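Appendix B, Record 12. Input sequence as logged:
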Amino acid sequence: MQASEPNIASKLDVSARWPCVAFLVSGIFWLLIGSAFAFISSYKLHSPEFLGSIPWLTFGRVRTAHLNSVIYGFSSMAGIGTLLWLVTRLSRAPLQGVGGLLISAILWNLGVTVGIYLILTGRMQGLEWLEFPPPIWIIFGIAFLFVVWSSLRTFRLRASQYTYVSQWYLFGATLWFPPLYMIANLPIYSGVPQAAMNWWYAHNVLGIWFTPIGLAAAYYFIPKIIGRPIYSYYLSLLGFWSLALFYNWNGSHHLVGGPIPAWLMTASITASVMMAIPVTTVAINHHMTTKGHFHMLRVSPTLRFVVFGAMSYTAVSLQGSTQALRSVARITHFTQHTIAHSHMGMYAFFAMTLFGTIYYILPRVTMVPWPSARAIRWHFWLTGIGIAIYVISLTTGGFIQGFALDNPKKPFIESVTALIPYFWMRTVAAVLMTLGHIIFAVSIYRVLRHFVTTYPSIKGKSA
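Logged structural output:
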């Protein structure tokens, strides 16, 4: 007698239990660490004397520690946990290489811990998102080999020869990230090429590492929860291949007016504008799939967070295409507008999507339900309102700053003092989001505590 669909899913979840728990919980730990650094760095922008006597907590170190703990701690580790669970569910095969994946989680945590320590002590590289010294990327490289091997081996054992669109995105992320990170860390850059490489990497770590995982999750969970197939498989393939074609040219448009080759800048601007193709196809697919079922946002926390993330992906991508234009970049680049744009991509899109995936995955791998629906609602509204305040305030402040800098009749200090109210709004947003993260972490702690105390009986049921 063939096993029923729920039994098959349960066995797949059991096979992915420990790697998913290790990566997802580690990601939340680093989210809390990053949130603390975010609040300190935000508060320093309008009150620079805050903790000013502690060398480890100067703005340059704290903000860098925030970025790296969120990028390589929370986003990468929770992203890998999501990737592994999706790989085994979509392949309908048990997750392979569990022992290696646990070693990978340990190594990745070690790399982030040592990297953050080196940043706080001032021993870092002066390239945004590449501040970790070279030994750290070697640790990440070894750790990621286990992820690649496990993903490919699990996919090889898939029960069906049919390949879902989410699998395209997952293997894109798995195979694109290692060469991206290795090329960016090669010790061959200096001067202008180094600046161009830095912007290329910063854009592509979002576009071909985090974005494919986020879109894979959206393509899986939206149809799954609603109970209907994706609107168009062919549109989804168009979106994937156009993303692969255009996104890797992005980044250099942030150096408009700089001493880089005109062809490189023009190619980057063109590719940014052409990103409207994958963005539009994804937006149409998600909207048409959800159409008529928006009422389910009230009852499904996963759908609520994932749809918020999917809508933010559309908004941030179209915003990126607009600000790549020379006439717009002249005002917005090197201002707070860029900070708002990056947070819309990394948080409003990717982090909110990850929150939704964790709400779906963790109860299934631990067999423990979430303890409080009210806590989930508070988490959503605090983080959703927080990131909205953050993006709106810094986008507005960025335009004001840009126009002030572009006006030779205005002294530079005016472009600084004009931002103080918006920096206060940024701090308010940081407080709201941090409260949401704490509520989320408490919920996860309660799930894990119940899981640990009931594990013997859960193990019996799994068997």
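The two ends are 18 Å apart (CA to CA).
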